[in-house]
Design a protein that fits this description.
Two copies of one chain form a homodimer. Chain A has helices spanning about 45-60, 80-90, 105-120, 135-140, 175-195, 195-210, 215-235, 250-260, 265-285, 290-300, 315-320, 350-360; strands spanning about 5-10, 15-20, 40-45, 65-70, 100-105, 125-130, 145-150, 150-160, 165-170, 335, 340-345. Chain A has about 350 residues and is α/β, with parallel strands linked by helices. In chain A, strands 4-3-5-6 form a four-stranded parallel beta sheet, sandwiched between helices. In chain A, helix 3 links the parallel strand 5 and strand 6. Chain A is globular and about 60 Å long. The N and C termini of chain A lie far apart (about 45 Å). The interface of A and B includes residues 120, 122 and 146 of A.
Chain lengths: ~350, ~350
Amino acid sequence: MSTRTLEVRLAERSYPVVIGPDLLQQPGLLLPYLKQRRVAVVSNETVFPLFGRKLVDGLRQAGLEPTEIVLPDGEEHKTLSSLERVYDALLRHAFDRKSVVLALGGGVIGDLAGFAAATFQRGIPFIQLPTTLLSQVDSSVGGKTAVNHPLGKNMIGAFHQPRIVLADTSTLATLPDRELRAGLAEVIKYGLIRDPAFFDWLELNLPALLARDDAALTHAIFESCRNKAEVVEADEHEQGERALLNLGHTFGHAIEGVLGFGTWLHGEAVGAGMVLAARLSHRLGTLSAAELARTETIIGAAGLPVEMPDIAAERMLAFMEHDKKNQDGAIRLILMRGIGKAYVDASVSRAALTDFLRRRN
Amino acid sequence: MSTRTLEVRLAERSYPVVIGPDLLQQPGLLLPYLKQRRVAVVSNETVFPLFGRKLVDGLRQAGLEPTEIVLPDGEEHKTLSSLERVYDALLRHAFDRKSVVLALGGGVIGDLAGFAAATFQRGIPFIQLPTTLLSQVDSSVGGKTAVNHPLGKNMIGAFHQPRIVLADTSTLATLPDRELRAGLAEVIKYGLIRDPAFFDWLELNLPALLARDDAALTHAIFESCRNKAEVVEADEHEQGERALLNLGHTFGHAIEGVLGFGTWLHGEAVGAGMVLAARLSHRLGTLSAAELARTETIIGAAGLPVEMPDIAAERMLAFMEHDKKNQDGAIRLILMRGIGKAYVDASVSRAALTDFLRRRN
């Protein structure tokens, strides 16, 4: 199976996204981006034994001096105190402004290690080595980095673009089924917000993706990254179009927040959140019944929850009011005008939203 | 006395620096930069009673909803845990991406509140209201924000430009003499690194500055900010010329670090550090004896320490090796080729530096 490469074009901050098998076993791919021997491999206790040990050995053989920073696994560790552990290790090993951070893991590691790199000595280079479908199609591309705060997800962060992204599809072989499905939520999202042809392709190829067919996965990751790159290129700092990438996320973050981060996977919450967004769009008259049905069907077929958990509307709203996309106190929702046509709507009143969240339909 | 305004030209991140008396009593100056009613006033327990209460009242009368975030005073509080207090307050008051942070205080408050604004929800606007000479001539202009780490000053930070800087010279009336002198260290620095004519002016006008003559102070602040703005415009992210602004700082940070932050004021350590840089330059043959003497004289006349404290060379070096300006393990020093001509030198060996720090001459 061949490797595919995509360029994220952001002037002097442009970078390649390389997608294909066995990339982590080719440290030579990283060497052009490492200006000195000191390099940190930030990972977690689940991923590091699977891929990190081998990566570190390869880097050492290439003459580098890798420092291992292995954090506990899980969204509940995406905190300021984990960040302090990374800062401490970088300083103890005398990292400087030319040292490079490698983020080896899923979205939590990528976001956290990326934020550490964004803020260590006011910014050092970093490289994304995503090992989950979710991070390969979403968080590793676009430069959003962050940690969580008890009062909200990703509340503390920065925009900091990686120097290169290596999406090694071989790492997906060991990914639990539940996480594969959660990753598909973000893949489906690209079809829903801006790419009806990709959505058609997904409807046909979902069985192949669930069976982890190599060619299908590579195509889905490539198309997802292409869509994400186009959005980020047009709106790096989320002043406009980039907000559309949050389809299902305002509802989804609230679901995650109320249940406690980690009860539902992010992709699961986004899956149920996209159904809510589609249902609200239908109720507002912008999405047809047939398009709502296609949305519900593909999310269900991906093995994602179609129904949100049993949460009081008021609790959902309390979380939604903390969303970063809000402006001037109004809740900004991403809704649909059709499959492939998402838009921002800040005009839904609290009363209408409460009523909708009570019926969930 | 009239108000002077300077523009820091950084394309879409350009902003004015306004210098003059009684600016904090004119909340109207801030209104064009506040897009919503929610605004945080971050200050400390010393400065807030002096100027903050009045500022908050003025903002409230102008129809805004200010939130007071008052931290303990002192460099020892420029930490990640103070930062958490700011994040907590912003989230508890439902701040969003259009909310604005006002930093009212000296460099510690400006750096810390600026970093909070740089990272809260991946970046919200902030405004610098510096109330010390040091922060008016240095830290409030240029967009460097940071907090300290036990292993080094300003190790965690970001570049984040303010929307406007109001340097209210009336606040200097209550500034302790020791802090006024510490601020003069950075003023003298601009003369030493790039502006011989300003250095000549300073030699003549130092008595007027020490006597807090209004016109002299306004001129010194304006010329300092102009020099800093020119450097920052040419090199926002410290790839080259901006490093020259650190004349005296590599030595100075080490002095502060060994003594414990807060024992010597930052400006005092920079004063002694600039003398060390000048002496080393003289020893290396790039600075004449007459120019070294002028440097020592003006620093002594400003009431700043000319001699570093009694610290072993090895302890100084251990701190200097953590400096952010270092690359590939080499210590980068800012030295002088003459008054008004600083340059970067990474070629001084550890042995030569140890020997110099033992003799201090």
